[in-house]
Write a structure and sequence with these properties.
single chain, mainly alpha, 5 helices
Length: 114
């Protein structure tokens, strides 16, 4: 049994039941946020990481064209986009945290092995 404060880091699929996106859903949302280079999300990314509008457009296009179902898989293959990808993920995660409770109280039953 867990007796002290514990944080579990789970994959995107584990949190879908609580309204968070799947890996593919997160890719879609990142691409949506970068669709409008004059929008708030794109401006925040450009300011936070010194990315240009062209950087954002190219990243978005290549992420879409990759047809990969997770931002992690894309960034593993396209390491030149690591900083931009992390900034995009972080801004999406921050937006999701603002809409969802930061702590979900789970009651974990003790697991026994037979």
């Amino acid at each position: 049994m867990i007796k002290r404060d514990t944080v579990f880091v789970l994959g995107a699929g584990a949190s879908q039941a609580y309204g968070f996106p799947s890996g593919a859903g997160l890719v879609d949302r990142i691409c949506e946020q970068l669709q409008d280079p004059a929008g708030d999300n794109a401006r925040i990314l450009m300011k936070s990481g010194n990315f240009s509008i062209e950087d954002l457009k190219t990243f978005r296009r290549r992420l879409r064209q990759s047809r990969l179902n997770s931002i992690d898989a894309f960034l593993q293959r396209r390491t030149e986009y690591a900083d931009l990808g992390k900034a995009g993920y972080s801004s999406r995660a921050a937006a999701m945290r603002r809409r969802r409770p930061s702590v979900i109280d789970y009651r974990v039953n003790e697991v026994t092995r037979d």
